[in-house]
Write a structure and sequence with these properties.
This protein is mainly α. Helix content is about 75%, strand content about 0%.
């Protein structure tokens, strides 16, 4: 097990180091194996120093889950916006770039899936985890809703806030399902298959009348 170097650094950086060490331990040893002692060893600190930043393991796990979900949403937005064509893309193309980023490495990643599955098992037994899940889910869904609203505005289509939310829920479900497929069995798909399927599925969601008559 590689130890992290825990140098003198601002408190925010030290806290982040402990969260990263927690994620490493959970990924390698599972939730039960990620003890405060193991996390301290990984971070190269004492258990007492961990307690300066976090009251206990539960709080470390909460922070690690929040970090995992925020990192995924942040990666998707960053990758989409860093695409060479993003600046000059129209809203529909930007939505497609967002879908592509959601269904490509490093977002589609077996380690991230393993961490996500571990954390998800706690949502119905830990109110704090449930709250983090709701917050992170809404953050991603709201970004999807914002992109859809831009598409509709650009194309002169009207939709109420409630209708936009329903579209975003459906698009989010498409992305989630294909993300799971990619993480679990990415080797079964040809390059860009998931992205192509995802973009076509999202187009169908945004044109339900056409999808029904096709």
């Amino acid at each position: 097990m590689a130890r992290r170097s825990f140098h003198h650094a601002p408190e925010g950086a030290r806290r982040q180091d402990l969260i990263n060490a927690t994620l490493d331990c959970i990924a390698e040893n599972g939730l039960q194996g990620a003890t405060v002692r193991q996390i301290a060893l990984r971070a190269g600190v004492t258990a007492g120093l961990i307690r300066y930043y976090f009251p206990g393991k539960d709080e470390l796990v909460h922070a690690a889950y929040g970090e995992t979900m925020n990192r995924m949403t942040g990666q998707v937005k960053f990758l989409a916006e860093q695409t060479a064509s993003y600046e000059h893309a129209n809203p529909r193309q930007r939505l497609a770039l967002f879908v592509e980023a959601s269904l490509s490495p490093p977002v589609v990643d077996a380690r991230t899936l393993s961490l996500w599955a571990t954390f998800i098992s706690l949502i119905h037994v830990d109110p704090a985890m449930a709250a983090i899940h709701k917050e992170s889910y809404l953050a991603f869904r709201n970004e999807v809703e914002r992109l859809i609203a831009s598409v509709f505005n650009d194309e002169g289509k009207s939709a109420t806030k409630a209708e936009l939310a329903k579209y975003a829920i459906a698009v989010n479900a498409v992305i989630d399902g294909l993300w799971l497929e990619g993480c679990l069995a990415g080797d079964m798909f040809a390059e860009n298959d998931l992205v192509s399927i995802g973009i076509k599925a999202v187009e169908a969601v945004l044109k339900p009348e056409e999808a029904e008559t096709a």
